[in-house]
Amino acid sequence: MQSPLALCNLRVIELGQLIAGPFAAKTLADFGADVIKIEPLTTGDPLRKWRLLKDGTSVWWQIQSRNKRSIALDLKQAEAQDIVRQLVKDADVLIENFRPGAMEGWGLGPDELLVINPKLIMLRISGYGQTGPYRDKPGFGVVAEAMSGLRHLTAEPGRVPVRVGVSIGDTLASLHGVIGILLALHERHTSGKGQVIDVALYEAVFNCMESLLPEFSAFGAVREAAGSALPGIAPSNAYKCQDGGYVLIAGNGDSIFKRLMHTMGRDDLGLDADLADNAGRVKRVEEIDAAIGAWTATLTVAQVLELLDAASVPAGRIYTVADIAADPHYQARDMILQTVMADGSTLALPGIVPKLSRTPGSHRRNAPEIGQDTDAVLQGIGLTATQIKALKDMGIVQ
């Protein structure tokens, strides 16, 4: 008999849109939380129309809103706001990622909601947080990545900084939000009280910036863009191969470096006492990188990886999504999930992480249509079919 999902008794109200709030709710839904997603009437979450569309809806939507229920409300109307208050009475968590002040303007701020349900945990994700001089500025993930210092580092030296390629600022904020929710749920077992979790996009990215600040504090060092290298840790870089591809090699462990040099036929470097530790290798990193690059240039990517795998040197090629979809390790780890769409076609979606041994997450339900569950959700708070129809006729719900 399969164990219940880890969060099967958790009720979550999602008021966010696009990426940050919904990704946090998706993560909880994957592990069994009952997520009720509240969307705008008619158009729904703007993510429904982002990037590539299938039958008029973004395939991204199928990841971001799997396992959720959808109810469509016009939150500008008092009756819709009252529905949210009714839902909050029995909720464990509310997630929102509007600009600070929006929820208060609807009468749905923490001062109101925590009176209705003192056990409520409220996750608030915004660009700059709920306090401070920038709180009212609009903030998207790309701006947060720049303010955190990340964008300054994502470039080749002397060239324009580039974005990571995905919405990393939003996703990092979402995951910090999930951590906050789990911490607050744990604490609630002791206090019996809910609380507000304030996550700023820029702070979530800044939290992942490793030694950036203490190096500046201690040495006045301003870390600069370094392309594919890892400054201060050597060798770790991308090296071009004979067939035009690149291989990433992380030979920065002391014993790993010796094995790498031996495999390359460069024991003169591997046994050099000055290169026995990272500090010595950093001083001569250009020489080391040149030696590795000269070696990889004589071999294909596949040949380099075969040799380095045999020597237990961490290395890998750069995957495209086509490589990911065909990779046997992804398949063996259930990281490629095939879901059946309403028209009978199949769609591959990313698998669920993290992997829990006894109560793993699951894909139980495809992403909903706009307002697909409005009737069921409203009936769950005591509204009759007649009352629901009246609300629909007035343009309050869909």
Describe the structure.
39% of the residues lie in helices and 15% in strands. α1 (20-30) packs across α8 (168-191). The two termini are 39 Å apart. It is built from 19 helices and 13 strands. The longest helix has 24 residues, at 168-191. It is of the alpha/beta class and 398 residues long. It has helices spanning 20-30, 60-64, 78-88, 102-105, 110-116, 141-147, 150-153, 168-191, 201-206, 212-219, 254-264, 267-270, 278-283, 285-296, 301-310, 321-326, 328-332, 374-380, 385-393; strands at 11-14, 34-39, 53-54, 57-58, 68-72, 93-96, 121-126, 195-200, 236-240, 246-250, 315-317, 336-340, 346-350. The protein folds into two domains: 11-207 and 332-393, Rossmann fold; 236-317, formyl-coa transferase, domain 3 (2-Layer Sandwich), CATH 3.30.1540. A hairpin with a 5-residue loop joins β9 (236-240) and β10 (246-250). A six-stranded parallel sheet has the order 5-2-1-6-7-8, sandwiched between helices.
Quick tags:
alpha/beta, formyl-coa transferase, domain 3, 39% helix, 398 residues, 2 domains, 19 helices, Rossmann fold, three-stranded antiparallel beta sheet
Average pLDDT taken over every residue: 96
Strand order of the largest sheet: 5-2-1-6-7-8
Query: Judging from the principal axes of the Cα atoms, what is the shape?
Result: elongated
Low-confidence stretches: none
Largest sheet, described in full?
6 strands, parallel
Tally of alpha and pi helices = 19
Count of folded domains: 2
Strand residue content: 5-15%
Radius of gyration: 25 Å
Indicate the CATH class of the largest domain.
Answer: Alpha Beta
Structural class: alpha/beta
Number of strands: 13
Query: Helix content range of the residues, please?
Result: 25-40%
What's the N-to-C terminus distance? 39 Å
The CATH superfamily of the largest domain appears as Crotonobetainyl-coa:carnitine coa-transferase, domain 1
Instruction: Enter the CATH topology name of the largest domain.
Output: Rossmann fold
- The CATH architecture of the largest domain is 3-Layer(aba) Sandwich
